[in-house]
């Protein structure tokens, strides 16, 4: 089961089904916006083998240029319960989300649309790969996430900020600076 209501931070144990759910979502995205996409990757903690995660899939969508986002058929995306989060302003990234319940704002997927091969692309994929290649570091990250989830159960922003130094340290080991 995927989904968390707005601002709720809760972790669940790792589930193998997340890989299959990503594969299904990738197929859907390819049918909806595939002509504008270079690559689609599963990122975030649900893509990290064996660690607890918020039950939401993070999907990285690489495009040749962020201008390509303007070409996405927002009506077809909306029919698939995928919405552009226009108020989320992050330099070099457009964010979309899928909701299973719009009244409660129950988010099941977050789509990070970035330039393929650019800084955001490298950061997200290298962080995922590093954690999967270093299970001991992944476990440290899991512990940090659990502490942050207990401390900030109703504030996704503070939860994310609590993890930033750890993420930055891992990216430095990969020689990538975080944007």
Describe this structure in words.
- The protein is an alpha+beta fold and 179 residues long.
- 41% of the residues lie in helices and 20% in strands.
- The protein is built from five helices and five strands.
- It has a five-stranded mixed β-sheet with strand order 1-2-5-4-3, with helices on both faces.
- Helix 3 crosses helix 4 and helix 4 (135-151) packs antiparallel against helix 5 (156-173).
- It is globular and about 40 Å long.
- The N and C termini lie far apart (32 Å).
Describe the protein's topology:
Layout: H1 17-33, E1 37-43, E2 57-63, H2 74-79, E3 82-84, E4 93-101, E5 106-115, H3 119-133, H4 135-151, H5 156-173
Parallel strand pairs: 2-5
Antiparallel strand pairs: 1-2, 3-4, 4-5
Helix pairs in contact: 3-4, 4-5
Q: In terms of per-residue confidence, which ranges show pLDDT below 50 for 5 or more consecutive residues?
A: none
Structural class assignment: alpha+beta
Largest sheet: 5 strands, mixed
Strand order of the largest sheet: 1-2-5-4-3
Form type: globular
Oligomer: single chain
Helix share bin: 40-55%
Terminal CA distance: 32 Å
**How many alpha or pi helices?**
5
Portion in strands:
15-25%
Mean pLDDT: 95
If you compute it from the alpha carbons, what radius of gyration comes out, rounded to the nearest whole angstrom?
Answer: 16 Å
Secondary structure: number of strands: 5
SSE topology string: HEEHEEEHHH
